[in-house]
């Protein structure tokens, strides 16, 4: 390779590092090039895989490790600066990729020097996992009582391997899907909740919708009273409400739609992914945002009027997973 081309590449790397670690600018570029030439001969190259006995012990000032799974699992490399990451599984597991991130150790002071090179499709996965973790950290900060834990998943990402989870322990809400309680209570115990929701949506006419803050949608959902005896364990008020909060933060959308209709003669139980709307009713509301459909049942016999909710998440390659 031509010396001038080498110089140009080193200069480009120098300029790039200077953007994130300004102290580099205090060093003379020519002095750095001379130092690189002097130390490069002592770089120690190690192959680390299942067929070698090599470990990742750092025994010289500059080391280059080449390997696969053995290098990526449960390893922390002291003073690691640059990684070329090419592992691209068909079904990415978030917890596995987060384990791989241990390779950098705890190096807040060196963040400006770290570089990670990977294909575009893996960059998409890494960004999705970053959003997932930020959403979970935010949830833990807001809900420290451990009553609810859920994570945002994007782009076909899985939180972990299925064989490490107890069957039925995880619920998932996916983009483009609808969810509703199987049935709602209609006895005297719901009268106060019905009045509260009446007041929250009093400005919205029947068969009409309005854009409102996502916090209001969550408040309305929490106020409804499903019939737990008919539950299929898919509809969970807390999980739905928290999913709305996380969706808003991670999608950078602060509003959703609420659709209202009253005096509906809804009686029969529904599957919790079936929906409660009549034909064509869902199309009355744009599908670009989260939509909460609220139907107020008619008073029949000795029963009370009650609000039956249905949530619709916008289409997309994302999901919210939560512990049941």
Architecture overview:
- The chain has eight helices and twelve strands.
- The chain has 324 residues and is α/β, with parallel strands linked by helices.
- The protein folds into two domains: 3-126, no CATH class; 164-323, no CATH class.
- β3, α4 and β4 (115-117) form a beta-alpha-beta unit.
- α7 packs antiparallel against α8 (237-251).
- It is elongated and about 90 Å long.
- It starts with a helix and ends with a strand.
- The mean pLDDT is 83.
Describe the protein's topology.
Layout: H1 3-20, H2 29-39, E1 44-48, E2 63-67, H3 69-72, E3 82-84, H4 94-100, E4 115-117, H5 120-142, E5 150-154, E6 170-174, E7 178-179, H6 191-200, E8 208-213, H7 214-223, H8 237-251, E9 255-264, E10 291-297, E11 307-312, E12 318-323
Parallel strand pairs: 1-2, 3-4, 9-10
Antiparallel strand pairs: 5-12, 6-12, 7-11, 8-9, 10-11
Helix pairs in contact: 7-8
